[in-house]
Specification:
single chain, 204 residues, mainly alpha, 63% helix
């Protein structure tokens, strides 16, 4: 089994967490999550922000929401996702476009069915949930069909980017604690070991 495969239980748990958070209106937790996302995944937010700039706030908010949802699913399973890079996202965008272009009559399909089997096969549980959520949002007028058409492709790009980073097909950046390097000691300064000798005559 691929190490990046997100099981159905994790997908459902993430959705439940988002639903409970939304229902509670806990702005403190929402702000905390948004800050963490901004710190750990700036390239993801920059990519989603492009859709806000091009299509307006409603589309931008939907792009950020679905991108955040995908990140949260990987984060739930892995504990800490690799940080996506602009290069990783661009490569994922090319991959998604290439695979979708091979699907015959894709423009005639409902928005939530506009995906390609090789992509779906890597993360079937996430794709199944995205299909369900987007279909429901459009059906219940929580999101227009036009908005769904715009944001579903970049959502698939973010999904492909995370999957590729975790599997090593395309690199992301490892996120870990910041380790501060010890200050450098000059050759003629007293050695840090406490001997009283110059560094060059001691540990240097």
């Amino acid at each position: 089994m691929a190490i990046s495969l997100i099981p159905i239980e994790v997908v459902e748990a993430t959705i439940n967490n988002f639903t409970e958070l939304d229902a509670s209106g806990d702005k403190r937790t929402m702000t905390k999550m948004a800050r963490r996302l901004g710190k750990e995944q700036p390239a993801l937010l920059q990519y989603a922000a492009k859709y806000r700039d091009e299509h307006g706030d409603a589309v931008g908010e939907a792009a950020v929401f679905y991108g955040t949802l995908v990140w949260a699913m990987f984060d739930e399973k892995l504990g800490k996702c690799p940080r996506l890079t602009s290069a990783n996202i661009q490569a994922a965008e090319a991959e998604v476009k290439a695979e979708i272009s091979k699907v015959e009559g894709i423009a005639d399909k409902p928005v939530h069915e506009r995906s390609a089997e090789p992509l779906v096969g890597r993360q079937p549980h996430i794709y199944a949930k995205l299909v369900e959520l987007i279909e429901e949002d459009v059906r219940e007028d929580a999101m227009s069909k036009e908005t769904a058409e715009i944001i579903y492709p970049p959502t698939q790009v973010i999904l492909e980017a995370f999957d590729a980073a975790v599997e090593g097909r395309r690199p992301g950046e490892r996120i870990g604690p910041v380790v501060r390097a010890a200050p450098k000691v000059g050759r003629n300064e007293p050695c840090s070991c406490g001997s009283g000798k110059k560094y060059k005559r001691c540990c240097g």
